[in-house]
């Protein structure tokens, strides 16, 4: 993962001009899909993802039901044209793993006990990818869950941190990920100060890891504010538009 | 229960149509509001986000060098796929395309292929060895009826604005994709004996039969596909085809005119 | 699809000697398979297809049942040796589409309301192929349905029309299809004057399409007579052979 | 309900057999009426439509040039597949071959392969590069028992009448496929302690155990396969094998003698 | 299958020093896996297989149940590293066939009538392979069934016989199988003198077949004694260790 | 019924943990008894049978020449797969790996890959043409919890004792695989707010959340993976990671020290 490419410039800024602890531009739109019970479009730099939530709804087959709570399902999927080289449709091993850890990042906040035997389905489609799609997907899904009216203990916010040119930085681009020394996606529930997703690959010391985790927590908090804002805007809008 | 609702809704639609009206106020021959935004995915060589009423479809076109088919060694290859991802409708399931997804992809493909819209011979890099492969991927985002027309429109709009990424593969400067026609798909349904253009989801499920006609700039027809478990008399079929071809002209003028790579 | 090969000779006849509106030789045998509830062997020129009908019978899994009518299923399949280059067994995209449109060509005549919750299964095997297998399959299936005693509103008859050397002709051979300018398979219910399958690919004017459709309708009517004849022969035979 | 019928039918068969009789009047060692029609599919290099009582199987043989296996660079390749298509029986389901289809194909394959009936060395076109690939495809049309023998017979009859399509691939004149033996499969079942040859469907489902023996013109044995959830004593096994080899001679004389490409 | 390699030495012994009617060394361990209801590790020369039995247990889906007896399922699987060239995981046609005939070799001794509607699952994993894995698997499975307490009419024992250098020999190695003229795996129930698996490929006379079968029967009897011994040891051990 | 038992068992475990105890008497930071036997499969280039309490995992490593990835033409290729075969647990089903098997394989893979333990550049045979492909296959034999650590340990032990089979492919003498680090996976779970190392199956199913940390000889960390539907505070996460790294050192000293090909 080491490289000869300089990823941090003389002025301490990264190749796209960001400071080490700076996020890429973020755009959040709530309720963009009409068929879904909840949905959210999320942009993070060049990443474009869209999440939809269906449910609580009936779960087939029956033996997959849980008598005590709703079953949460999560499907992360990349559009064939979302990456440089056209991707063959259908799940690969990477997307199966991402679907699993994303579900485990979100399930802790969903009050599944309210809906025994039901399914809550979360679908994330990656329309364009530039490193960070899994965290973008979790951010979108969390907002979509709220938009669907699913009772939650808090919003989940996610971001990756990494190490490039020996330095811990927030929110890697694809170029930084490729030539960097470490990548660590993190999701957390700001309200309860709980980390619900943590993955890492690369090679770092214990101290670097701790610094990276702190930076990720700070990043998640900033994203959390944007998620809240987007939801408030949507729901104050609608309050004026229509009486529920 | 939902079956009863289905019946009630169907009766309602039939009664409306018999009075010459549609559920959303359109005339029988009118499309819903239509918006096409191209170049929305920078990773793709061409792309178009189509909104047809509440139906939303994103089409991406990618080009890569690859091997030609043995029987057409001097022609590019075109591959069309459609994914009815479960995000787009409560009735779509994860998994490989079912018969609806396959039919959608194949009809979109035929419309473009048979019209000759793409000059595949210009996509030969080295005869018998290397040609451009065009991947047209239809990604349905919200299904509110008439995926066929939205997808076909997204496909041709993506192609008209696509570039051949020669540079990335060390094959000279990027070039526009050689597109020489603009096939437009128009779908009609039969409800209560009347022909309605661009059915929304309710109309689609109430219709006994669907007819898709893809026609070109000169008014010629390149593809047709009947769907659904009803039928039409030969006379009514001819009328429907005429309506579809007429309607295609309007759509072409409104949406496709002047599209080209940026 | 255009070509340099002449497909219509000086004398106005086609390469196999047929007139533009002439069908290839047709052979129909009813009730050829003993296990099936109904069956039909159908030859159209070199095309050889066999259709079997099973049902009405129980439908598994239960959630696939329709409480108001029978579910009609149709499977078109080509034998590996039916084509020039050996075909890998199993459904490809083409056969999935053909199965769908063929089912939609036949279902309009089947009185499915008589058998709620049941399945009516139609299987078509293409044993040899020379352009026209989907229409041959529909013709065979329609007779097999009648042979199985499934209540129907009429027989479905099917044929393709095309354009070769600028002329609209009936019932294309494989060679004509390959070098021709248009191919249009049509199915219709003669009794009710209803078109139940219509597909087209190629490039034709509105006028050419109308002419082609008229020719297809005429072709279907001729095939309908042959289907009726085959059924009458079979059932008058059996009436003498055995008291039902 | 159908289970009760099964039991009744089984008892009936057992009682018959104990009296030395079979449900269709045959002797224990007799085959049902057998018809083999070759060259029925002109698109195939060889083909045979086999009727064994009401069991019907169509076998097609195709040849195409392709790559040899790395460990036999100078030999042709033989691939056998069997499709139990749902047209042939209410119990067959669509989908890839299940264990019955796979067993059928593999036993048919072994009979031909191990007998050395095909001289695979003569099917080498260019060592290590190009050899003839033989595809034997068994297509079952009506399943009334003993698919094994019908399929194996269809396979060898197809091969004996097949031509190598050299012309189509620019490799000279067509030639007959080099077939130098005529393996014949005969299947026996054990019902009520008796050995019956060529079981029909009822007999097959009532039998505790099945034994297939494939033997050659010189009386040697090339393949055996026991099936079913019963067993046989070693002595009875030997008796059954002898009966099968005897029976194979008759079938060979009756059906395969003189078969060659037209 | 014929070859120029001499497989039998001047002194009448085989390349690994065995006499024609000699088995390779056998090692049997009973009850090696804790999660399974019964298990057995079996070595035959270099072959290493392990069998586990689960059941009688509930069978899903319901429509696969048999109201009159337990359904026996058998899965033979090779570890990817068990063979010279790494094997792609998942069932191939060979292992599907082996699973079928192995199940049919074992089912005759299982008293399935005791457990209507249940499943008895037998899993055999081949850890290392050197010709004879299917017979080793049947031997292991038979002991594992006994270890699981499944009521049985007898133990099933299996071995292959073959023909090399014109001579009938017991228990082929991989080298002998590859260069030999015939391979014939046999399973039998010693207690009832019943052959429950018989497969053969090669080319032999009737006399050779009969000789081979006799040798196989003798081989199965010797393996049966080893299976019994292993079970008796295990259960006399446990009797001292723990009161059931 | 089994749900009630689950709850009772979970309560019991929670109460134990609150008293500072574990069900099998271990301290929170202790591993179960651990045995690693290498070179158990002679057909494999490297192998290790790991027993971690009653959890048993067999890992085999195979090497074969093959093509490099286009973007790393001078590097060997490493492919890791895990099969949760139904022999190992009543809850495992036959079929392709599910999300648990895929996660297991990918985390094991990342630990080895990211640590740089294998010098992939030394596995290039001919740049851009031929490199060694390393297949690491995890075969789970008995699942009694913490498959992650057992599998990762089996993988590195197999690799450390593996030989490159140069001879078999005519590429000179066999050589040891170039292994230059010894990543060790340690998994912790949170039960009742306490961090426990190496959970057994009961503990695993009662835990709200799992954290796997793979660390190297120099104390650096190469991979982490949180699992389960609970979470941890940042502070507790840091504590858990520290415990895992500490524990890895012990395991490395006890089990991996001095391992090399025979």
Describe the protein's architecture and organization.
The complex is a heterohexamer, with three copies of chain A (244 residues) and three copies of chain B (262 residues). Chain A has helices spanning 93-106, 133-147, 174-179, 206-241, and strands spanning 26-30, 38-44, 47-58, 71-78, 118-128, 156-164, 167-170, 182-189, 194-204. With 244 residues, chain A is α+β, with helices and mostly antiparallel strands. In chain A, helix 1 packs across helix 2 and helix 2 (133-147) runs parallel beside helix 4 (206-241). Chain A starts with 25 loop residues before the first strand and ends with a helix. The model of chain A has no long low-confidence stretch (mean pLDDT 95). In chain B, strands 1, 2, 3, 4, 5 and 6 form a six-stranded mixed sheet that branches. Chain B has a single domain (24-256), classed as Ribosomal Protein S5, domain 2. In chain B, a hairpin with a 2-residue loop joins strand 2 (46-52) and strand 3. Classes of the chains: A alpha+beta (244), B alpha+beta (262). The interface between A and F is large, with 37 and 35 residues.
Tell me roughly what share of residues is in helical segments of chain A: 25-40%
As for the CATH topology of chain B, it is Ribosomal Protein S5, domain 2
What's the helical proportion of residues of chain B? 25-40%
Per DSSP, the total helix count of chain A is: 4
Compressed to H and E, one letter per element, the order of chain A equals: EEEEHEHEEHEEH
Would you give the CATH topology of chain A?
Ribosomal Protein S5, domain 2
Name of the CATH homologous superfamily of chain A: GHMP Kinase, N-terminal domain
